[in-house]
Write a structure and sequence with these properties.
This protein is mainly alpha-helical. The protein contains 6 helices and 5 strands; from the N terminus they run βααβααβααββ. The strands form 2 sheets. It has a 3-stranded parallel sheet. The longest helix has 18 residues.
Length: about 130
């Protein structure tokens, strides 16, 4: 099971081939990929006029994991432990907590944002932009 971080979705929108290929191959291999409800908020916040349809098509590929009490509690523990030493932000703490609760591998390019040792974190290849 894999939870995809927002940065991978953003890379896809910016034409990074590796991100698009990762999403496609992971969906073919596993049949299901997860994103946090926080990623939905982050993607919609950065959406430009005219990108609405493409954004909704991309989001429809994923199972969106809501943020419940278990995720909130785990995120709070992460913030308590890492906010001062690693500048952990609320959004990242919730994404990490979602991976923990799901028992999912977190797929992110921003590995340094996630100092937790109780979740598996993997970075996909960066790749180049499509031409």
């Amino acid at each position: 099971m894999q939870l995809v971080d927002t940065d991978v979705l953003i890379d896809h929108f910016h034409g990074v081939t590796a991100a698009t290929e990762y999403i496609a191959s992971a969906l073919l291999a596993d049949g299901e990929l997860f994103i946090s409800a926080i990623s939905v908020s982050e993607i919609l916040a950065g959406m430009r006029k005219g990108e609405e349809a493409d954004t909704e098509e991309l989001l429809a590929l994923f199972t969106i994991q809501p943020v419940g009490e278990a995720e909130a509690r785990a995120a709070g523990m992460y913030l308590n432990q890492f906010a001062q030493t690693h500048r952990l932000e609320l959004g990242d703490s919730i994404v990490a907590a979602t991976a923990r609760v799901l028992g999912a591998e977190l797929i992110t390019r921003n590995v340094k944002h996630y100092p937790m040792s109780d979740i598996v974190i993997r970075a996909p290849e960066r790749g180049r932009k499509k031409r």
